[in-house]
Amino acid sequence: MQPFRRGRVLARLAGSEADLDRVLSLRARAFGRGPGVSDRDGFDDLCRHVMIETAEGALALCYRVLLLPSGAALGQSYAGGFYDLAPLAFWPGPVAEMGRFCLDPAHADADALRLAWAAMTRIVDGAGAGLMTGCTSFPGTDWRPHRAALALLAAGHLGPAP
Known about the structure:
Blueprint: E1 4-6, E2 9-13, H1 17-30, E3 48-54, E4 59-68, E5 95-103, H2 110-127, E6 131-133, H3 147-156
Parallel strand pairs: 5-6
Antiparallel strand pairs: 1-2, 2-3, 3-4, 4-5
């Protein structure tokens, strides 16, 4: 993906260890890690890391994308380590898994979100991925406070019937 801009924000892929350090720092803050605690895991070296930066160069948003050759490889994904994705193994073409989506509240900007999704579209289209996966976290273990979000997902965002 070539870098591109919308308004005052720029989308690009992390291209250096320094870029990845910035991504990991934002992720650590977003996921409540203490100072000096890394959010790095074994998937980081396999993924593309999208960075959305402000005109001043601050990292406003980041996420990672893992491209897999087919549904048969979903067991090797981050979500595959937590969920049974075997029912999607039939998927014949490329799959994109999005994860670790983090927005810095100090730089919340509608254009940053628009650009993040535009970058994901470019990556998905460029890879020819016909299926996107991922997982998210809701705080706590009681599902009731998240009823509306879960209902929205169930109503319109379920995976393929098989």
